[in-house]
Amino acid sequence: MPKSLPPLTWFRAFDAAARHLSFTAAADELGFTQSAISQHVRALEQRLDATLFIRGKRALILTEAGRRLVPDVAAAMAQLARATEQFLPTQSAPKLTVATSASVAQWVLAPGLRHFHAVHPAAALQIVSTVWPDDFTATRADIDIRFGAQAVVGRNATLIEPSQLCVVVASGEGVTWETAMALPMIQPVGLSTGWQDIGHVMGRRDWPTPLIQVDTHGLAVDLAIQGAGVALTHSLIARRAIIDGRLKTLKIPETPAIEGYYLAQNATDLPVAQQAFVRWFFDWVAT
């Protein structure tokens, strides 16, 4: 037995690629890029010292080694899925499962659920919060609300507006760019447009590298509210804190977010509940 097992992500990439015989289809399923799936499989092949696929122009072909590996990996993935499901909350009433970015759960859904249940008092929900794209594959959700570029989130996903970048700082008297820039810069990871890009557009080439990087836009908003710094973040997540006066925006040129928040409707046994939630959600974020 090897001293250490290959990462689970490598096996998941192999499992999906073997079922679809396509790195592209595997990427769509797992929420990765095609390049990432290919790299994970290549890393697994190097660790096992075996070629698992013949890379054809139109499709993958399993090698003999790949065919031998498929049953054990598939069985392991199924066993892990069963082990996970026993810990998921259960209830007798049918429930709509919403897998959502942790930032949306905290800053969009949490303030709105009281209103949702006032309109739909009998609606049962299971909300599963996520951070990374592959977290969505762990839950069979009726609705996905995820962050990323259009190419990553899928063609059936709808962009949630507003989808702009904004700069926010804790509210207070006399807050200006000059006072704000004395604070550390905060920036979420995964943004194609960062502080340096904003500074370049504004003619500020002397801006320092952000001192604080966070993994979610919600955390960027939390830190800004606590006075930890001035945050470049997504307008959808900062919006409620701006409306209720906890944050103040600093003016920047209009900056559409290349990566945004998207809602996707998946195949469901609860189509009526799914449509009711989707209609409510888009009405809520528009208020």
Describe the fold and architecture.
With 287 residues, the chain is α/β, with parallel strands linked by helices. The chain has three domains: 8-85, Arc Repressor Mutant, subunit A (Orthogonal Bundle); 96-157 and 260-286, 3-Layer(aba) Sandwich (D-Maltodextrin-Binding Protein, domain 2), CATH 3.40.190; 165-250, Periplasmic binding protein-like II (D-Maltodextrin-Binding Protein, domain 2, 3-Layer(aba) Sandwich), CATH 3.40.190. The protein is built from eleven helices and twelve strands. It has helices at 8-20, 23-30, 34-48, 64-85, 102-119, 150-153, 177-180, 195-201, 217-225, 235-243, 271-286; strands at residues 53-55, 60-62, 96-101, 125-130, 143-148, 157-159, 165-170, 185-188, 212-214, 230-234, 247-250, 260-265. The strands form three sheets. It has a five-stranded mixed β-sheet with strand order 4-3-5-12-6. A five-stranded mixed β-sheet has the order 9-8-10-7-11. Helix 1 (8-20) packs across helix 2 and helix 1 crosses helix 3. The N and C termini lie far apart (58 Å).
